[in-house]
Amino acid sequence: MVRERLDPETAELWREFHATVNMRGEELRRWLLTDASGPDTFSAEPSMDVSRLGRRIVAILDKRRVDLTSEDVDTMRGVVENAARLLAVPAEERGEQWRHDLMTLGHDPLRPDPASPEEEPGAEGPR
Length: 127
Description:
The chain has 5 helices and no strands. The chain is mostly helical.
């Protein structure tokens, strides 16, 4: 179903999703293929190289807003909610698994926030 415009709630979710997912699609796919993301991402089927959620996130990153499906909207909502829950974990309780869980959602917590006023412009280089 192709829509000319998104309803305001979905448009806001699109913005939140892209603010939360700070990895590009290819970066996320590579992450999901590494041992660092955990053994559950691998499948006995070579064509099934990443988790279903990972494939969904990568697919959404490759889409235009007007091409979203209801499944995409549900996936985006889940990613935003799960990432917010993980980011709310107190710093003293965060471990390596915490970072892995976030990166599996497409959020690298070690990547500087481009909107952060503490970051110097151009410090990260081109994406």
